[in-house]
Specification:
mainly alpha, about 0% strand, CFAP141, 2 helices, about 100 residues, about 85% helix, elongated
Amino acid sequence: MKERKRVEKDELLAARIADVNREKELRLKAESVTRGQISPCSRRARESVELSRELTCASKALTEVRRAALQELLLLEHQQHSEELSRVGKAFYTQRI
């Protein structure tokens, strides 16, 4: 008698769990379908925002690359100027601390 009730209770619980899992799967499928049906206007707006972010990042990266190239060029020019001065017997003034 007790075993029968326990078995019935377990079966009822299993059925409820199965129902909950089916509902979760249906909800996930519905969400994925609605995501795919986004209106073209909102899709364009989202793509526009993403494009502007990408352009901003690219601009920053390009600025960093240019800055590094200019620093390297400035260092090279300073070295060349220093060599020219040393050939003449002169040097840059550096203050000692």
